[in-house]
Each structure stands twice: as structure tokens, then as C-alpha cells.
Sequence to fold (507 residues):
Amino acid sequence: MSEFWSADTEEGLPTPPDIPKEIARQAVEWLVEWQSGDMAADRQEAFRHWHDADPDHRRAWRHIEQVNQRLRDLGGPRRAPLARATLLTPPLSSRSRTRRRLVQSLVAALFLGGGAWSTRDAWPVWRADLRTAVGERATHRLEDGTELTLNTDSAVDVLFDDQQRRLRLVAGEIMVNTGQDRRPLVVETGQGELRPLGTRFTVRVLDDAVRLSVLEGVVAIHPRGQGHEAARVPAGQQRRFNAFDVAPAAPLDDNAAAWTHGMLVASNLRLADFLTELDRYRNGSLSCDPAVADLRLSGTYPLADSDRVLTALPGILPVEVRFLTRYWVRILPKSSSG
Amino acid sequence: MASGGQWHQQIDRLYGDHQRWLVNWFRRKLGCHQRADDLTHDTFMRLLVRREAITVREPRAFLTTLANRVLSNHWRREQVEAAYLKSLAALPEEQAPSPEEHALLLEALHQVDRMLGDLPLPVKRAFLYAQLDGLTHQAIADKLNLSISTVKRYLIRASAQCYFALESA
Fold:
């Protein structure tokens, strides 16, 4: 007996009738002819003959009509564009496609300064060893005693062998609190590698760069395009880098580690930037009217309940919060009447 | 060959011995306990609805294979949902479906997405123009810059797969 598994249980759509392949094929050809838009009268007559000639023909055709009924639910001028955009999302990659995309992003990385690596190729994220969903945070203790915390919507591969301890940050943001081990620890990102020297730090993947914030100890940055150490970042500093450059050092911002305690810290932050930050912890779309984008706010906000943070906004700023659905929120100027 | 009763006993044993391990496996992949429970449940459901029995010699390897399939199905659903929300956000508010409509639409989208499977994108595109917009072959050919005979070939290929799960030449 084999352990081979074939049939996936399908739900929802009518199951194909048990009819000979040849008849199914004929039915499909008739359907496509009907859809051509210029089916002559004698062909329509021929179809009717075919349809009535055999009970299997009729069953095949009825099945097509049933499925079409479902498809019609998605049609029409209002829904079709939405359905099209959704259904044309490329499917989860097979191995060959992953490889092809990998080659593409490597090529793109060479010419675009590494930006392409971070345009979240979905597959590596999904197959990562450790992952958090949007709005979640998780801490793992690794075999060497390193404490690894993943922020919202993040993915990490843990690749430990005899020679080294390698963490590949595929997406999102992590805090690393290094454990004692004879093997060197390396954090790999699309833009380059980080080599900590006994330390606590956070790393965040941005659209076209990576941001390193060092809380304790020292971390060395090795940009991918340089292949050697380009900077050492001491505690209390943060720096952005991409495959080729390391930006000047800046003091740690209040928010660098606040997320590990489930907080978002804003000090005189633009509303638009605040929402961009909050959006990382939510599904769906969160946006604001340009008229309120430059309002500023300060404070410490709990990430666990971002809905409540949003509902509290009108108490702090002259804005109105419109929840169209739980997933679709827009911040508007306070209306003069209300 | 195991009989029906033995098969169920075997599933019970698999569940008893490996359920916790599988929940952990999912949790590592998902970073979420709640959904790890759900997907573990889905995995065992797939075994239960199976009609013929199979002999499982390497239970964890077997469950991993199955769980990987459940997982990729789950990711695909999430991906479809994310794509849906993204296209939704791009629509003007007054064109957006009502909240009741959302759930129905999304379920229909999941079903059709499974039906379309891994057909190449140009084939899907032609099929959706024909089905959702009722465009003629000529109109699709113009829109996608293809010959009419290619459009026809694409439509037959998509329809053979979608309606009858036939692989077409």
C-alpha cells in the first residue's frame, strides 16, 4: 500500500459529472463557440442537435451551466474588475518558479541597488521557519540561548550548523538578544549581513533599506554589494543601510524597541506616519485624508488593540474615523456640523 | 488493505500519538496558536473524509506531506484575501460592495481560484474576460493583443480544466 495522497477534497463548486472525456471535450468546444460572439444560425442548430442527441451530452452541458451560474456572481461592471484583480494574483510558486524569481530578483538587485529583494516575494515568507501573522508578536528561545522576538508580519529562517548560527530575516522586524556560543552569529537581510558582538539589537526590513538599532553591545554591518565590513554601530545608535551604502548614524528613536513591549511610541509624529506605523499591525487598508496628514501627535499606544487606538483619535485630534468595514478605515477631517 | 473500521482506528491512533506534535508544527509555521489548531483539525478531517484506507508506515512523514498541502491551501486563501482587500482599497467608496456582499464574494472568489488552479496568467485572463465581462473572442484578442485562434485555444484550455478537470493538450 502506498502513502501517496491524491484527491484533495473540493468544496463549493459542482463536482464534474462522470462522463467520457471525449464528450466533456465536445461540450467545452461548444461553450467556447457560443462565447465567440459570431455563431451562425446553422451552428446554433448543430449545437441543439448535439445537445439532444445523448443524455451524457445534456449532463455535460448542465454542469457547464451550473458552474457558469457561480461565475456570474463575480461578473458585471462593478464586480468583474475586483474579481479579475483578485484572481490574477500569481499562485503560490512551484519550485521552478521560485528559482526563476530568485534569479530575477538577484538580477534586479544588481541593477537597482538591492531594492527588489524587499518587494516581498511571497514564497520565502510563507515557507520560513518562524513567522508571525499581522498584529502578532512572538518570542523564541533558540538552541544556543539566543532570544529572538518577531514583530508583526515577520518571517525568519533559522540556519544553524557546525560553523555558524545564521538568521535570515526574510520580512518584517526582529529583536535579537544573543546567546553565548562559540559559533559566530550572523543576521542575513536582503541588503547585507549583520555580525553582532555579544549584544541586543533590532533589525527591520524597509521598502528599500534595512534599519539596524543597537540597544546593547556593538553590531557590524556588511552590505551585500561591498562584501566587507562597512560600519560598526554601538549601543544607542541606529543606522539604515542598503546593499551599497550605510547612512550616517542617528540616535536611537523612541520606537526602536517599544514594540517588544507591545507599544507604539510617538513623539511629535505626523498623523500619516503614525498611521503607516499602526498599519503594520492591522489587516486591510488604513489611510487618511491629505488634509489631516500633517497633524502631529505624541503618546504611547498599545499595539494589541489598534481599533481602540483609532477610535480614540478624535479625542486627541480634530479628526473623524470612518470604519467602512473592520478592514477598511479612513481618517477624515472633523466635519464642521459634528 | 485496511478495512473501513480499521482505518478509523488508525486515524484515532494517529490523532492520539501525533495531534500535539502537528499543532506545534503548524504553530511554528504560522506563529499563531488559534489557526494551528484549526489547520490541525483540517488535516485530520481530510483523512476522515477519505474513502479508501491506506497503510501509514511513517506517520510523521505522512502527516507532514498532508499538512504541507493544508498549509499551502491556507496560504493561497490568505493570498487571495489580501489581493481582494488590496483591489478593494483601490476602488472609489461608492463602488465598494456592502459588508454582506463581502463574505459571499470572497467565498466565490476562493472557489473560482481553486478551479483556475495553476493555469498560466494569460489563459486565466482570457477566460475571465469571456466569463465575467462576456467579451467576444475578437474583443479579447484586441484587449490582450493576441490572435483569435490563440484566444480560442486559451479558452478551451481553461474551460477543460475548470469544468471537467481535464488536462488539455
